[in-house]
């Protein structure tokens, strides 16, 4: 099966690289940005015969399976372009790599015979080199019509750790959960770092406790890894925290919202009597 990729960004280049190294036949990659193609040439130039082009339709013409690896906001325009410029997609597999959308975003191509799907690496890709390094240990989520799933599973298990099938109606919550544990985790670290800077401390001394927490979560799950004042029922400490950030509205909102989650976790664990939990809940509400 000949594979073509539309989009020479971090995902497109890194996925193409790992597919080639895994023995898959990537024959063409396209991007409208010549600088992106130059970057792709640096990473994929060793693959003899691979075509780098600015013409997306050339990817479709030369491939059996087409991977749309553009940014999410570009997918619809790619679909419109292919729908307008190509008359017959019978037997072609067309998939995208977005975790935020199901294969329904590709639906206009269904009437032309395309088999539609999604292949999404559940991973953070800050740059191409790190993406190439972590892809083989990444879980790859797949979604699509029945005609597509076997091919998606084959590719996912070639480039990643394991294929995990997900339903179309679950894609938004799947992506939201990833944003919470990855993107917004970084935002939380940044908020904490802001307080550190106020008192002249860098994030470095906090890295061991962050690593230990992640290791605990991996071994025991988030619920049993929770520590801190709320799970101890320490009302005075919660009050002192709120006083310390009384003039920092955004940080206070973050603290209160996450403390309410910790409150429900503590209730689920049954570690603190209900009367104390209600007092903490009232403090968080009133402050």
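Sequence proposed for the structure above (287 residues):
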């Amino acid at each position: 099966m000949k594979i073509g990729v539309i989009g020479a960004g971090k995902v497109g280049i890194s996925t193409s690289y790992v597919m080639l190294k895994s023995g898959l036949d990537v024959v063409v990659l396209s991007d409208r940005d010549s600088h992106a193609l130059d970057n792709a040439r640096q990473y994929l130039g060793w693959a003899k015969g691979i075509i780098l082009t600015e013409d997306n339709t050339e990817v479709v013409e030369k491939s059996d399976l087409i991977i749309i690896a553009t940014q999410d906001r570009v997918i619809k325009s790619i679909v419109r372009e292919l729908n307008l410029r190509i008359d017959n997609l019978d037997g072609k597999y067309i998939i995208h790599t977005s975790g935020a959308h199901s294969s329904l975003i590709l639906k206009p191509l269904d009437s032309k015979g395309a088999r539609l799907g999604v292949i999404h690496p559940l991973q953070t890709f800050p740059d191409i080199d790190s993406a190439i390094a972590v892809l083989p240990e990444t879980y790859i989520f797949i979604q699509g019509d029945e005609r597509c799933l076997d091919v998606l599973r084959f590719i996912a298990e070639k480039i990643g750790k394991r294929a995990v099938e997900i339903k179309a109606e679950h894609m938004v919550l799947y992506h939201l959960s990833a944003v919470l544990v990855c993107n917004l985790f970084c935002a939380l670290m940044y908020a904490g770092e802001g307080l550190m800077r106020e008192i002249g401390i860098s994030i470095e001394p906090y890295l061991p406790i962050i690593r230990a927490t992640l290791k605990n979560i991996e071994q025991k799950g988030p619920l049993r890894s929770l520590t801190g004042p709320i799970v101890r029922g320490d009302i005075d400490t919660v009050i002192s925290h709120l006083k310390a950030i009384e003039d920092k509205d955004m940080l206070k909102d973050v603290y209160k919202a996450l403390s309410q989650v910790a409150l429900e976790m503590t209730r689920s664990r049954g570690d603190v009597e209900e009367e104390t939990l209600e007092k903490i809940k009232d403090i968080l509400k009133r402050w």
